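Project outcomes to date are best conveyed with an example. Our students and postdoctoral researchers have been running inverse folding experiments weekly, and each run begins with a structure described purely in tokens. The record below, which covers 290 residues, was selected by the lab manager from last quarter's runs and is presented without edits.
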């Protein structure tokens, strides 16, 4: 919407009509109406009819009734004018860059994810897609993005070499570490959520690095324009980064003190969970007290 406002060529009435369309399809950012690769627009969303292959966002929810037909014509003309490179193929004039956040922290959620390294397709329980029976990939349903390993990549639907068939009898394979994390209280899971999808092997290698090095640990937080962020890092004595994390600070009018405490809390939660996991065998029936 900011692009339309900055263009200076739309009246207040047209801007309101454009705003209604962008709210109806839940498009807060450009990535919300593009394909996962960021090269093309999702034609279904551009036309105002999102399908089961379209992404949805977890960042917001606009309660907006469907605008009339003439508003969608204005919307498509505006998109074509400012963003399309090729009107016939719906290609973006400026493709989007690489995803900066891990899957668990992205606000755009897709119905399918492919892990080419493991030959696995993950599909959403909420938007199952009927697909052919013959497929070279194993298929597992996911309920939350945190369940998907970081080696997977999003897709709006099956590609030409993967034709997965949703199979409710196939449970989602989860590591012992992931199961342990899911047993923790929600606030703790929020602090360590980007590490939850990691495999047991990755956690084992990380544990070995942390326990065989002299560590340097730092955390910080800051606030700008009522938006808070925190970050922390663990390095060895030579300054080589071992692991790091960052996140948002929630709440009304966050202060720098709260941001710094949020960073320290996230760091301590991660260290505590990692040590608890390696110090005691995981028992799924018991809730961890933190």
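After processing, the design step wrote out the following sequence:
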């Amino acid at each position: 919407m900011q692009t339309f406002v900055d263009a200076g060529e739309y009246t207040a009435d047209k801007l309101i009509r454009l705003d209604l369309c962008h709210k109806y399809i839940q498009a807060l950012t450009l990535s919300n109406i593009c394909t996962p690769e960021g090269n093309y627009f999702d034609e279904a969303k551009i036309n105002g009819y999102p399908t089961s292959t379209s992404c949805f966002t977890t960042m917001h929810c606009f309660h907006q009734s469907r605008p009339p037909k003439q508003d969608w014509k204005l919307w498509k003309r505006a998109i074509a004018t400012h963003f399309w490179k090729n009107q016939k193929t719906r290609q973006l004039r400026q493709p989007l860059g690489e995803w900066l956040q891990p899957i668990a922290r992205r606000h755009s959620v897709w119905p399918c994810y492919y892990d080419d390294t493991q030959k696995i397709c993950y599909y959403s329980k909420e938007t199952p897609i009927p697909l052919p029976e013959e497929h070279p990939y194993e298929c597992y349903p996911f309920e939350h993005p945190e369940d998907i390993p970081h080696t997977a990549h999003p897709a709006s639907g099956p590609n030409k070499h993967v034709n997965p068939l949703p199979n409710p009898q196939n449970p989602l394979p989860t590591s012992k570490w992931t199961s342990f994390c899911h047993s923790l209280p929600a606030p703790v899971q929020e602090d360590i959520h980007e590490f939850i999808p990691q495999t047991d092997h990755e956690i084992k290698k990380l544990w070995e690095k942390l326990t065989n090095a002299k560590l340097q640990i730092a955390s910080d937080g800051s606030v700008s324009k009522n938006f808070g962020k925190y970050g922390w890092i663990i390095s060895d004595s030579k300054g080589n980064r071992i692991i790091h994390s960052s996140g948002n600070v929630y709440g009304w009018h966050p202060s720098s003190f709260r941001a710094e405490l949020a960073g320290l809390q996230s760091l301590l939660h991660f260290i505590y969970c990692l040590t608890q996991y390696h110090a005691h065998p995981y028992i799924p029936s018991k809730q961890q007290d933190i």
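The longest helix spans residues 256-279. The radius of gyration is 22 Å. The training component of this project remains on track.
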